[in-house]
Design goal:
Helix content is 23%, strand content 18%. It is an alpha/beta fold and 261 residues long.
Length: 261
């Protein structure tokens, strides 16, 4: 009898052991996450260092704010332009600052728009076999500070603090060698086709920035300073619109507001 009582007790203990509440296993802590440090970059305008994610990025350049992106930086480069540095430049004469914006037109091949040949030309990368005309000009060493394409895109090739090679033999109201004191702006055009609204808008945007950097700028066309050699920007360039949209004084346009060349 005792044996059966002991067996019953053992069975009861085993039953209650199986039914006991299970203790939750202590959670295993997750390994700490190793995070990559945020890249710190300098503002291309003022040099302040900030996390890249907090900056405005423009062609792999970083700006701390939109105002700095839309200015000429201390080295003479425009933040909103596409930078395509040209080897064709040298120093302005000592003490000379830009005083003239000289407007040109250019198309490569002549009469054709929307290709990259102009930039290649200014960077000495023009393939002379790509078009018969290129064989005539590929060896030339020329440049401009800015190019405004038909869609309004602005490219910059030379710092405005440096002398670009765009005017050639020239005379502005008795001052020769305009490259010394001029900023060259090329408009994509052929002299036979009207310039686009996008180009006038971009030109006004650029003129505002140039005016912030240099006061008392004058404006002229290539044909005004080299009348025996050049006809650009041509008879389709609207000088009245240039004055109106940029609030220029008459004295800043010494060759007048008439369509010419």
């Amino acid at each position: 009898m005792l044996k059966w009582v002991l067996l019953g007790a053992v069975a009861a203990l085993f039953y209650f052991w199986l039914k006991r509440p299970k203790l939750a296993a202590a959670p295993v802590p997750a390994p700490p996450r190793i995070t990559e440090p945020l890249p710190i970059v300098p503002c291309a305008y003022c040099g302040v260092h900030l996390p890249a994610q907090d900056c405005l990025e423009r062609e792999q350049r970083f700006y701390c704010c939109s105002a700095h992106c839309n200015e000429m930086d201390p080295a003479g480069w425009y933040g909103l332009a596409r930078w395509r540095p040209s080897p064709n430049f040298d120093a302005r004469p000592t003490g000379i600052q830009p005083e003239l914006v000289l407007i040109h037109h250019i198309s490569l091949p002549p009469g054709q728009f929307g290709q990259n040949y102009i930039g290649d030309f200014f960077q000495n990368k023009l393939d002379p076999t790509a078009h018969p005309y290129f064989a005539e000009i590929a060896a030339q060493k020329v440049s401009s500070h800015f190019l405004i394409e038909r869609n309004g895109l602005i490219s910059q090739f030379v710092s405005v603090q440096q002398r670009a090679w765009h005017a050639g033999e020239s005379d502005f109201l008795g001052r020769k060698q305009c490259n010394d004191f001029a900023i060259g702006v090329e408009l994509e055009g052929d002299g036979e086709t009207a310039f686009t609204d996008a180009q006038y808008v971009a030109l006004a945007q650029l003129i505002k920035v140039l005016g912030n950097a240099y006061t008392h700028l004058s404006f002229a066309g290539h044909s005004d300073v080299a009348p025996k050699r050049k006809v650009d920007p041509g008879r389709h360039f609207d000088w009245q619109r240039l004055q109106r949209e940029n609030h220029l004084l008459q004295e800043q346009l010494p060759f007048g507001l008439e369509f010419r060349a």
